[in-house]
């Protein structure tokens, strides 16, 4: 029984030390080192079909993250005429994260000063997109 207790204490001590040293602060700028930015894929998009010139259109974007520390970071866009390719960059903040893979929601704001048909392509895999077609009047 004493041997099991000894191994249990060693195990708990090792885990405790691992948690204590798992997230180090940078002495130069005192910011947390446990921040990672990673491109994630869009799962679904909820968008209107039409909009008005010079008025913002709010598009709901759902994307997955790989653990509980993940949240929205920023959109990465490339533009070619009236087509935009949009990727989500997730920001993971924290050294100790839950291991679930939640779905996060954020809003993409589209605005243009030119009437026409626009194609917004949200990256949903390395080679696939969820496409939104907007007519701006």
TrEMBL record:
It comes from the Bacteria. PROSITE patterns: PROKAR_LIPOPROTEIN. This is Lipoprotein.
């Amino acid at each position: 029984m004493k041997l099991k207790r000894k191994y249990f204490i060693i195990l708990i001590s090792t885990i405790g030390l691992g948690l204590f040293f798992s997230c180090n602060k940078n002495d130069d700028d005192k910011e947390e080192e446990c921040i990672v930015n990673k491109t994630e894929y869009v799962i679904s998009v909820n968008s209107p079909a039409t909009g008005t010139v010079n008025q913002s259109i709010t598009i709901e974007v759902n994307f997955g993250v790989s653990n509980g520390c993940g949240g929205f970071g920023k959109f990465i866009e490339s533009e070619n005429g009236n087509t935009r390719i949009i990727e989500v960059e997730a920001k993971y903040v924290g050294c100790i994260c839950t291991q679930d893979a939640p779905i996060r929601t954020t809003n993409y704001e589209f605005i243009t000063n030119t009437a026409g048909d626009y194609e917004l392509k949200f990256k949903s895999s390395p080679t696939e997109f969820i496409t939104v077609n907007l007519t701006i009047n």
